[in-house]
Amino acid sequence: MHCPYCRNTDTRVLDSRVADDGGSIRRRRTCPADTGGCGKRFTTVEQMQLTVLKRSGATEPFARDKAISGVRKACKGRPVTEDQLAHLGQDVEDALRLSGAAEIPANEVGLAILGPLRELDEVAYLRFASVYRAFESADDFEDEIAILRAERQVPDSPAELTSAPSG
Ligand SMILES: [Zn+2]
Predict the structure, then answer these.
(1) Mean predicted lDDT score pLDDT of the chain
(2) Is the Cβ–Cβ distance between 43 and 11 less than 8 Å?
(3) What is the mean pLDDT of residues 95-104?
(4) Residues 6 or more apart whose Cβ sits within 8 Å of residue 59
(5) Is the pTM of this model over 0.90?
(6) Which of 67, 70, 100, 149 has the highest CB neighbour number within 10 Å of its CB?
């Protein structure tokens, strides 16, 4: 690991700490002035490499951009910003890391996307779900929309259950 200030390659680890969630290690490093470095300090974070197991059986390193490329397509023409997409990518990666597994089947990456995407934009969610779950007919869309509606109409308090209008 070279020094980010002077590019000296002879840097030293001062201290290593496991981060709170246990999924990463922080190292405090120094670029020692006594061996020709600049004397500055910096921190590195070491994380487990997430691997995606594809349906073909091949594996590839998890890449946030690639993971949300399908979401990006589904959001075309929708009021979803790049910031929100980046945030969703972060949420998905966090959720996958929290699972603690190093190798994640591709369909689980898709599953991890569905929840946060539904919060973000229901139309984009339906588009993404139609591809991901291989919707075959308009009925599949109607079923999914019915679920969305039903969950949106869940009353906030029990009182609303008994005072619902009849007509
Ligand atoms: Zn340096």
Answers:
(1) 87
(2) no
(3) 88
(4) 51, 52, 53, 103
(5) no
(6) 67
Asked whether the beta carbons of 144 and 122 are under 8 A apart, the reply is: no
Q: For residue 19, how many C-alpha atoms fall within 13 Å in the half-sphere facing its CB?
A: 14
Q: Calculate what percentage of the chain has a pLDDT beyond 70.
A: 90
- How far is CA 138 from its chain centroid? 29
Centre of ligand 1 to C-alpha 112, Å, is 41
120 — pLDDT class (breaks 50, 70, 90): very high
**Model pLDDT for residues 108-118, shown as the tens digit of each residue:** 999 899 999 99
Dist. CA 49 → ligand 1 center (Å): 27
* 97 Cα–ligand 1 center, Å: 32
Query: Could you tell me if 53 and 59 are in contact, meaning their C-beta atoms sit under 8 angstroms apart?
Result: yes
8 C-alpha to ligand 1 centroid (Å): 5
